[in-house]
């Protein structure tokens, strides 16, 4: 019998405590002159350190623009990992959240991995503490453990497979075809979406993304009533009711592709608004509209913008290049163990492309 069962934990409490320590996110708008001066300084420092900037789609537009201008990359977490591993630079500056820096270190242990801040984390990572998760896995030894990339190095080290949202469905389909039962962590919404798509037998951890969890089907339906010609693009970390009304569901890269292939001129986008920078480049003539969020959720601090991604600022990038004081370290033994499920994902997704 295919059955998705939720495992209760205290993810929300842990995340709220972290957000309370963090304070409100900042919102900077730099004048063109100030921005250019910062870009020039950072470019110089990148050269001095033989470093490259790797940025996630959810970072602020200035950071994404800088990554593009300096020969770095702007992408989803799977592509960030690949790009960092394959690039010649000896130092990677990862603009994103901590698990992305850890993944870079695991895949490139010989490189120096710097981040503008080590405080930038993720509600999914926070909501899946390794001790609790490991104890749960131990209770189900006949299950294959599949974890989302948004987890700590220690949780990855406990897993058989790591996946990102761009390859998760295919990997679970593959495991299901082998008759394997699956433990999925930490995002419950993505897990439920995959379970529904594949019919696989999955036990779901009950973590969630504080950004995507705030999207509401009702608000989006109201917006659709206003713009009946619009298509709705949804990231599968959103609640099931939101996924159900989508015209396209997918990872950040897949949503950008959908924006290009759908015929609609107006797109309602239910993911972090950081994606608008690259999406608008891909469809310059289309109108992109932010999907409404509930705004009143207990953990919503910034609605459709991740408060941790927003901590990646130009000043932080410059500072870390000058001082190298925000470096990612992963215990080498742990890294070796965590690399196995990551390598499995990378070779599986490479085989999909062939
Ligand atoms: S947007 Fe959500 S999943 Fe992405 S880093 Fe922020 S909290 Fe984590």
UniProtKB/TrEMBL annotation:
Protein residues bound to iminosuccinate: 56, 77, 148-150, 165, 235-237, 252
Pathway recorded for this protein: Cofactor biosynthesis; NAD(+) biosynthesis; quinolinate from iminoaspartate: step 1/1
Domain of life: Bacteria
Principal localisation: cytoplasm
InterPro entries, A to Z: NadA, NadA_sf, Quinolinate_synth_A_type1
Pfam family, one: NadA
Molecular-function annotations in GO: 4 iron, 4 sulfur cluster binding; metal ion binding; quinolinate synthetase A activity
Family of this protein: Belongs to the quinolinate synthase family. Type 1 subfamily.
Function: Catalyzes the condensation of iminoaspartate with dihydroxyacetone phosphate to form quinolinate.
The protein, known as: Quinolinate synthase
Organism: Acinetobacter baylyi (strain ATCC 33305 / BD413 / ADP1)
């Amino acid at each position: 019998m295919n059955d998705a069962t939720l495992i209760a934990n205290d993810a929300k409490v842990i995340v709220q405590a972290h957000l309370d320590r963090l304070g409100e996110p900042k919102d900077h708008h730099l004048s063109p002159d100030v921005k250019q001066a910062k870009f020039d300084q950072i470019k110089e420092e990148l050269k001095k350190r033989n470093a490259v900037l790797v940025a996630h789609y959810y970072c602020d537009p200035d950071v994404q623009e800088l990554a593009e201008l300096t020969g770095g990359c702007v992408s989803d977490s799977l592509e960030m990992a690949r790009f960092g591993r394959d690039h010649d630079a000896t130092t990677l500056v990862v603009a994103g959240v901590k698990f992305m820096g850890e993944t870079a270190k695991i895949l490139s242990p010989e490189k120096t991995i710097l981040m503008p801040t080590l405080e930038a984390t993720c509600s999914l990572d926070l909501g899946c503490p390794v001790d609790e998760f490991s104890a749960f896995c131990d209770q189900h030894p006949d299950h294959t453990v599949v974890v989302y990339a948004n987890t700590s190095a220690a949780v990855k080290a406990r897993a058989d497979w790591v996946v990102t949202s761009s390859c998760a469905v295919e990997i679970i389909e593959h495991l299901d075809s082998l008759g394997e039962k699956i433990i999925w962590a930490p995002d419950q919404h993505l897990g439920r979406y995959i379970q529904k798509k594949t019919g696989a037998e999955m036990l779901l951890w009950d973590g969630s993304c504080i950004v995507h969890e705030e999207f509401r089907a009702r608000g989006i339906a109201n917006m659709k009533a206003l713009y009946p010609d619009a298509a709705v693009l949804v990231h599968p970390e959103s609640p099931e009711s939101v996924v159900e009304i989508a015209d396209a569901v997918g990872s950040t890269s897949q949503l950008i592709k959908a924006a290009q292939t759908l015929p609609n001129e107006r797109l309602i986008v239910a993911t972090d608004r950081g994606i608008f920078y690259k999406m608008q480049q891909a469809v310059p003539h289309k109108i992109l509209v932010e999907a409404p969020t509930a705004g009143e959720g207990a953990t919503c601090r910034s609605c459709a913008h991740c408060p941790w991604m927003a901590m990646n600022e130009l000043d932080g990038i410059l500072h870390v290049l000058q001082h190298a004081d925000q470096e990612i370290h992963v215990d080498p033994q742990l890294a070796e163990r965590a690399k196995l499920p990551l390598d499995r994902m990378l070779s599986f997704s490479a085989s999909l492309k062939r």
